[in-house]
């Protein structure tokens, strides 16, 4: 019993850790793709933006992106052309690897574009601060809701893994 409790606490601790955004660079006219394994019916949200190399000045035209998010079966969930920032949200229709691809605009001389990207799925995709504001719940109740959603997610993941 103690072993099960310790295992559950460890799993909850790992899953409830704070996520951080990913920062990467792309050269002009190049592509970078990032994959995420998402199970069916999971909520997914993502935000991306180009980091301005010249603080206080407008973003140069050479720092634009084309972004596409697709499922493993080729279904497109998000597309944006020549943008410097954006966001997407969807509920995965099928399980598998979803791909977010970023294309930097072709520019001469070649430039390097730095991108901040934050992609969250499942329990991490929920905006807990808005849940607390809307429901005007106290801190303890909010923490309990987070833990309940995390445990539910673990439970669903166990069934998913058994299916596979």
From TrEMBL:
Membrane topology annotation: Single-pass type I membrane protein
Annotated GO CC locations: membrane
Segments crossing the lipid bilayer: none
Compartments where located: Membrane
PROSITE patterns named in the record: GOLD (PS50866)
Principal location listed in the UniProt entry: membrane
UniProt keyword Cell division present: no
Domain GOLD: 31-146
Domain of life according to the entry: Eukaryota
Signal peptide (residue range): 1-21
InterPro entries in the record: Emp24-like (IPR015720), GOLD_dom (IPR009038)
Record keywords: Coiled coil, Membrane, Signal, Transmembrane, Transmembrane helix
Similarity section: Belongs to the EMP24/GP25L family.
Name by which UniProt lists this protein: GOLD domain-containing protein
